[in-house]
Amino acid sequence: MACVRLFSLLLALAVFSGAHAAPVPEARVMNDKPARFGDYEVYYSAFPSTFIQPGIAKTYDLERGPKNGLVNMVVRNVRDSEEGKAVKASFDGKTANLLGQQSALKFREIREGDAIYYLAGFRFSNEEMLKFTIKVHPEGASQSHTIQFSQKFYEGGQ
Question: Which of 17, 39, 127, 153 could pair with 47 as two cysteines, CB 3.0-4.6 Å apart?
């Protein structure tokens, strides 16, 4: 049941995070038009970890705090249908602040029924603009594709 709540929460949060996103032209946020690469669509969002309830964070061993954020990635193969099918993927990502300081993103796979999504934690300072650069390689695909987006984060929460 916690899995269903986490996935539902992440989708709901994507709407909120999109309202504060400052994307570069190639960026897309969840519940908006996804980034499309051939037969694959990539949905993503980034948000403060305090948006996740403490019990759910504990269940998934997610670091929760006023300076911690999460980036969520979902990859779907849409070759055979508009809705598509969730596929496994590998990711190589990083964040960079306006001073050029970089931090690697380490993604963890979460499965919930037929859904597959990936979460990576990151740290931020109040009102910090972070640029995300994430290389996505869907399982079975012949190439990787890079997604970039920028977003401002605000400290808060518990």
Answer: 17
Interval 38-47: pLDDT, tens: 999 999 999 9
Is the pTM of the predicted complex or chain greater than 0.85? no
Question: For residues 18 and 29, what is the distance between their CA atoms, to the nearest angstrom?
Answer: 6
Residue 85 or 82, more confident:
85
